[in-house]
């Protein structure tokens, strides 16, 4: 899909304020409301806009510990990877699961839990119990330095 400056502006604004009204969005990019809404619908239908979400404050919810977990698998087969990915997708504390290269690990998980006890339970009772997990290395996040959800689409 070819994006023009209006499409790029719409994408940039919606990434930081998905609750903006169509009228305000149209005003900010210099279009009338009807063509602006049509453009947003096309961006949604094309799959460039995949979802709208609320971002929550983990600490305010009592989730004070974030960890990055590197997972090594015992075998590198499509079935083993698929089984792991299916299992880890069912764990609500897992915010992100990335299949990675360039490390001794095969996956990197980002998890958020209440505290160290909750982390220990998650790790020992649920993650290491997934068939094929042969190694785990954990790092705890001390501070988020950059924490974005928006892509740069200004071209």
UniProtKB/TrEMBL annotation:
Transmembrane segments: none annotated. One of its GO terms (cellular component) is cytosol. The keyword Zinc does not apply. This is Lrp/AsnC family transcriptional regulator. Keywords: DNA-binding, Transcription, Transcription regulation. GO terms for molecular function: sequence-specific DNA binding. Residues 3-64 form the HTH asnC-type domain. Pfam families: AsnC_trans_reg, HTH_24. Gene3D superfamilies: 3.30.70.920, Winged helix-like DNA-binding domain superfamily/Winged helix DNA-binding domain. It comes from the Bacteria.
